[in-house]
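Many introductory courses stop at the sequence. We go one step further.
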Amino acid sequence: MRIYTRSGDKGTTSLIYGKRVPKNDLRVEAYGTCDEANSMIGLALSFLENEKWEEKDAFLNVMHRVQTILFHVGAELATPNDKEVKWKLKQEYIQELEDQIDAWDKNLEMLHNFILPSGHRASSALHTARTITRRAERTAVGLEDELPNPLVVSYLNRLSDFLFVAARYVNQSLVGEEIPLQADV
């Protein structure tokens, strides 16, 4: 398979099943933003390559599953309404995020004010992935009338919460500093 096809040289791209749309179509923006968030999660994980902590393998497994499901979110966004989604999101995926948030959060120091994205490089990258996910969510909300599966927006909403807690979990596991927001500057 060739990487380049030249089919997008005139500013259009294909959705799943081949329907052509402009590259600035809201659907393309939404699934492209999911891809961007997924890439940032991958960058965060690459920063953990030489790190060691007891739960690292479990953490990586959870994150790889999230990356796979986020790819499925993109597939839902790239599928025209009149076509079947091959990898349909399920409520259980949102529940998995919530369960993991709760498991990590119960061991984290309670927050008393906002924190600045900081600490370990992986944590900072996860905070960046969180903000990219929020943008994907905002874009998907603009498509809500065109989305056959309302779980897309719900998943993206919960994923941003998950990434916030994951960033905190990495900082705690690797003794990264969390910098509290100073109200008086």
